[in-house]
Amino acid sequence: MRVPYQSLIEGCILKQAVYSKSTRPLIPKGTIINTHHLKVLKGFLIPEVEIETYLDNGERFQGKRIENRKNHFNIKDKAKPKSIEDFYQQAVSGYARSFSQWQGGTSIHMSSIRQDSLPLLRASLERTDWIALKLIQGDFIHDGTQRAIGMGILSAFLANKLNYDYGDLLQIGIGGILANCGLAKLSPSILSRYPHLKKEEKMAYDQHPIQSYKMLKTVSTIKEGVCLGILEHHEYGDGSGYPLKLTRDKLHEFSYIYSTVETFLSLMKKEKPIDALINLNKNYLFKLNTPTLEVFTVKVMELFLGYKVLLSNGQTGEISYIPSPAPTEPFIKTDHDKILVLNSESNIKIEKILVN
Length: 356
Hints:
Strand order of the largest sheet: 6-5-4-3-7
Strand content: 5-15%
Helix content: 40-55%
Number of strands: 7
Distance between the termini: 39 Å
Largest sheet: 5 strands, antiparallel
CATH superfamily of the largest domain: Hypothetical protein af1432
Number of helices: 14
CATH architecture of the largest domain: Orthogonal Bundle
C-alpha cells in the first residue's frame, strides 16, 4: 500500500525501493524502516512510499494510506478541498512530490504547480488571519517543503500590500514557492547536512539560485521579472549576498520582495515572528530595500492586532495599535485597561503571542 511519509513508523517494510536523484536506490526494497531511514526520507523530501500491509513483527499497519492518488490531486474532483487548511496541505504535498521529481531530472510542470498552489495563494490573500496563525505557530519553517509554501504566501501577501496588480502578485507568489527549486539539483548529501557544510559544499549550495533561474527560464508562462527576482533572492543591496554579489542598483524590484521574505523566514528559524521583525529592521536595514522592508514590517505587525500577548513583566494584554514610525513597538492594552507603549525605555517586551 502507498502511504505518506508522515504516516511511516519504525517496523514498516518497503515494498518498493525508494529513489531520489540517483539511479541507485536511496533505500532498497525490503528494508525495515528505522529512525535513520525516517530522517533520510525527510531530508530528501520523499512525499510517499510503497510499503507492505504488515510490520516486521507481523502486526498489520494501522497508519493512514493514500486511497486514490489520482482523484486526490484531480482539480476536477468534486470533493476538492474547501478550507484554507485543505489548500495548504494540498500545496505542501504537491511541492514535495514535484521536488522529488526534479531530483530525478524532470523539468518543472507548471500546470501541476498552479493546480496545487493557486487555490492556497488566492485564499491566503483573503484570509490574512490564517497567515497570522501560521506565523505564530511557526508552520512555515518546519521543513523545506513548508518553507517553500510559506515563501510563496508571504511574497504574494507583500506584493499585495505594495499594490501590485492581481496577476503579478499571483506570479510573484508562485515564484516565491519555486525560488529554491534549484536545491533539487544539488547533491542529496548537501541537503541532508545543511547548514553544517564544508567550504566546497557551501560554495555549491550558494549556486542554487542560479539553478532555480535555469529551471524557470524554460517555463514560458513565468515572467522574466520573476525569474530575475528568484535569481537575486539571496542578494543584498550592499553586495554581501550571493550568488552574484550584486548591489542595489543592479537588482530587480521583485528581488526586494523575495529577499525580504527569505531573510525573515531564515530569522524565524530561531526567533518568534515579532523578534524576527525587530532583528530584520536592526541588522538588515541597509541590506534590504528600505521601502519594501517598512511595508512588510507594518503589514505583518498589523496581522497581530487584537491578539493577546504575554509580556516580559508577567502581565498579559492585547495588541491594540501599531504605530507606523515604530511598528515593532505596539501599544498594548493590559487586562487592567492600561495602555503600555513598548519601546526601548519601557524595558518591557512581548514574550509570546497567545493563541486562543
